[in-house]
């Protein structure tokens, strides 16, 4: 029997991409679309049909088998538990439930087993976390990891439509209206709010979520930077492994391609390495610039790039849905 899937935040940047991913996957589902009262009544395209957007409220969320939430933490906090109480299964893209011990935080290629413990809500990890843990997965399986240093270069689409608009506005000589400083021709070491420990919330997310997904208390530090590109995040990852390695064996791990969606792109003699411009619009996580860090024992440098709106948000959520739909 066909299942009903609701997309909450259907008119936003991630919500519209979720609808596209559902189309591409050609799942046997009926789709319902939800947004705020201001967007109710709009028509959005799905499989050559026009579907009206419904106002999200306590009554309208009834009768839906699965939800993909992409409307921010406030909406998730209010409506995800209500939907779960109604018998729906919620896949939430906000950070609201990610560190809840009763909510699985899932990257399907790594910890699909965690879905078995869900209680009606499943969390989609942070976009930068998703690509980073996928890039690290072959290393952590083969050699173990003692310490990770993340340095991110995150596109403005990570802030949604407002971030994209601020880039276009400031690039044209206008004033910043969304970011605290102009983003065009600039970089902001400031993503989300600053915490009492002087890290930003984005940096803390990467630390906490990596540990939860790998189910290990790895030593991790992070610096997250907003950069003036439109789509795809880049992460420089410095790793200290538990076991010694040969660099040729690291390359061999990535060439094995036993982690779906992880692609080695590393031939510096031909100037081949991952870039946002080539990762945009794709679901894969691209890894390159692999080299030994000679400053520590068992040190390794990686560079990974992925489309933050696809694998970093919409695709990962729909992959989770596909696992739940399997008989």
SSE string, helix = H, strand = E?
Answer: EHEEEEHEHEHEHHEEHEHEEH
Kindly report how far apart the N and C termini lie. 11 Å
The counted number of beta strands is: 13
Mean pLDDT: 97
Share of helical residues: 25-40%
Q: What's the arrangement of strands in the largest beta sheet?
A: 3-4-2-1-5-6-7
Please work out how many helical segments DSSP would assign. 9
Biggest sheet descriptor: 7 strands, mixed
Which structural class fits the helix and strand makeup?
alpha/beta
Q: List low-pLDDT spans.
A: none
Q: Nearest-angstrom radius of gyration?
A: 20 Å
Percentage of β-strand residues: 25-35%
Q: Can you put this structure into words, describing what you see?
A:
31% of the residues lie in helices and 25% in strands. With 327 residues, the chain is α/β, with parallel strands linked by helices. The strands form two sheets. It has a seven-stranded mixed beta sheet with strand order 3-4-2-1-5-6-7, with helices on both faces. Strands 9-8-10-13-12-11 form a six-stranded mixed beta sheet. Strand 12 (285-293) and strand 13 (299-306) form a beta hairpin. The longest helix has 17 residues, at 127-143. The radius of gyration is 20 Å and the shape is globular.
Gist of the model:
The chain has 327 residues and is an alpha/beta fold.
Task: Provide keyphrases for this structure.
alpha/beta, 13 strands, seven-stranded mixed beta sheet, single chain
């Amino acid at each position: 029997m066909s299942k009903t899937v609701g997309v909450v935040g259907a008119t936003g940047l991630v919500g519209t991409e979720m609808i596209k991913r559902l189309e591409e996957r050609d799942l046997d589902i009926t789709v319902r679309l939800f947004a705020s009262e201001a967007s109710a009544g709009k028509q959005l395209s799905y499989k050559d049909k026009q579907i009206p957007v419904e106002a999200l409220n306590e009554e309208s969320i009834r009768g839906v088998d699965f939800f993909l939430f992409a409307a921010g933490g406030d909406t998730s906090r209010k409506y995800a538990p209500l939907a779960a109480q109604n018998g729906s299964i919620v896949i939430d893209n906000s950070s609201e439930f990610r560190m809840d011990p009763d909510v699985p935080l899932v990257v399907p290629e790594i910890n699909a087993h965690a879905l078995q413990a869900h209680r009606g809500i499943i969390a989609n990890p942070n976009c930068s976390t998703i690509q980073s843990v996928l890039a690290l997965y072959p290393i952590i399986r083969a050699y173990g990891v003692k310490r990770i240093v993340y340095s991110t270069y995150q596109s403005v689409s990570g802030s949604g439509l407002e971030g994209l608009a601020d880039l276009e506005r400031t690039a044209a000589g206008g004033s910043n209206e969304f970011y605290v400083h102009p983003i065009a021709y600039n970089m902001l070491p400031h993503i989300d709010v600053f915490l009492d420990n002087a890290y930003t919330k984005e940096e803390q997310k990467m630390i906490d979520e990596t540990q939860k997904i790998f189910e290990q208390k790895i030593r991790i530090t992070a610096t997250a930077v907003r950069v003036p590109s439109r789509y795809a995040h880049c992460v420089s990852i410095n790793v200290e492994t538990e076991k010694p390695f040969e660099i040729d064996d690291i390359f061999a791990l990535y060439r094995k391609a036993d982690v779906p969606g992880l692609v080695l792109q590393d031939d510096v003699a031909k100037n081949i390495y991952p870039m946002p411009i080539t990762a945009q619009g794709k679901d894969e996580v691209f890894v390159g610039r692999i080299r030994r860090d000679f400053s520590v024992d068992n040190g390794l440098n990686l560079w990974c790039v992925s489309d933050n709106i696809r694998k970093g948000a919409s695709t990962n959520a729909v992959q989770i849905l596909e696992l739940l739909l399997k008989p």
